[in-house]
Amino acid sequence: MHKCWLHILYVVLVACILFTTSGCRSSRSLQRQPFVLVVDAGHGGNDQGAAGRRSLEKDINLKVAKRVCKLIRKKCKGVEVIQTRPDDEFVTLEDRAGMANYFGADLFISIHSNSSRGWAEGTETFIHPSACGSRSERMARLIEREYVRQGKRKSRGVKTANFSVLRNTRMPAVLTEIGFISNRKEEKFIKSKRGQKKLARCISDAFARFREEYP
Ligand SMILES: [Zn+2]
Description:
Elements: H1 2-28, E1 35-41, H2 57-75, E2 79-83, H3 93-102, E3 107-114, E4 123-127, H4 135-149, E5 155-160, H5 164-168, E6 173-180, H6 184-191, H7 193-213
Parallel strand pairs: 1-2, 1-3, 3-6, 4-5
Antiparallel strand pairs: 4-6
Helix pairs in contact: 2-7, 4-7, 6-7
Bound molecules: zinc ion.
């Protein structure tokens, strides 16, 4: 409970700072509302997600999510970026979606690492079954396209799933699996700085394209 309140306090503080600074900028550009992007690093705290041989999913997700936020803050003007968890902490699935709804987000991107018993490899991005043909699907396709184009990853495509964060968010939302932590070769890539930089660039470039298409 204590940690939960600290977390809410953090998010409110970040949002206040972001909206205050954006207010300064927008006063010049005729009060244009900033685009609000919520970036969600999957799992955290005692929920470690999938485990690889040498890494945990929650750590990889957080590192990639942080890089995505950094790149977008640097490159995309008029975008306020909010992280559902800035650190290694537990946040419920309901709170992740709730946060995005509370801040009136325009887009929600959840970042995860995949796992399977076999030798599966590649990326895949999920949208809610009710979101086919929507902006969510477009964003998912843009992400998968960048994974192939500049990430040189094997894409397993865009898929649908009734995941909690996709079901409970009231804005375009995607959940992207950046690779299989259960696959030795892919784990090496997604846990490396080089791999994480590349994956973050794919996601942020896809976002930049999405913004161009839906200004
Ligand atoms: Zn996960």
